[in-house]
C-alpha cells in the first residue's frame, strides 16, 4: 500500500499564534505596490513567472496527513483533531526561493489530483477550474516556518471547488521582495526595504 506521506524534513510547527487581518483592514498600512501583490486574486505562480521572465519550479518540503494548526482548523471550520492533507512547498526561480506556501485540505475532501500534484504548483490546478471560488484575503506579518526561510509577510485565503475546501497560505520571501522592488510597476511609489511590508496596529 502506497503511503500518503512525503516528508523530506521534520515537519515544523509555529511556536506562536499568527494574527490575521483582512486585507481591507491592513491596506492603509501597505504601499500601493505591496497592496497590489498581496491582494492579487490571479495565479501568484503565473505572475511570478511573468516577473522573472522564466519558469517557476516547485520544491516539496512536506506532504502528508496531519492535524492542522488551530488557526487553520478554525478558518476551515473543522472539528477538533480532524485530519487534513498538509502540503508545504517553496516556489523558486533558478534555485532562488521566492514564496513559501502551505496548503491545508480536509482529508475527506481531498481531490485525487491535489494529492498527486507532485512538483506542479497548486495554482496550476486551481486556476484551471473556472468554477473555483475564493474567500477574502487575510494577512499576517509572520512568515510560515518552512525550510528555515525568512518571509516578509504571509497571506491566506480559502478556495472552494465543489465540496472541497482548500486553505492556501503564501509567505513572500526576501528574494521575492527584492524582485518586486525592482519591478517597473505602475503601483510602486516607494522603495522596498528588507522588512515586513506592514505591521498590525
TrEMBL record:
Pathway: Cofactor biosynthesis; ubiquinone biosynthesis
Family: Belongs to the UbiC family.
HAMAP family the record matches: UbiC
Keywords of the record: Cytoplasm, Lyase, Pyruvate, Ubiquinone biosynthesis
Presence of keyword Metal-binding: no
Reactions listed under catalytic activity: chorismate = 4-hydroxybenzoate + pyruvate
Binding residues for substrate: 87, 122, 170
Any single biological process term in GO: pyruvate biosynthetic process
Domain of life where this protein originates: Bacteria
Organism (species): Kushneria sinocarnis
Protein name as annotated: Probable chorismate pyruvate-lyase
Localization (cell): Cytoplasm
Function of the protein: Removes the pyruvyl group from chorismate, with concomitant aromatization of the ring, to provide 4-hydroxybenzoate (4HB) for the ubiquinone pathway.
GO terms for cellular component: cytosol
Gene Ontology MF terms: chorismate lyase activity
EC number: 4.1.3.40
Gene: ubiC
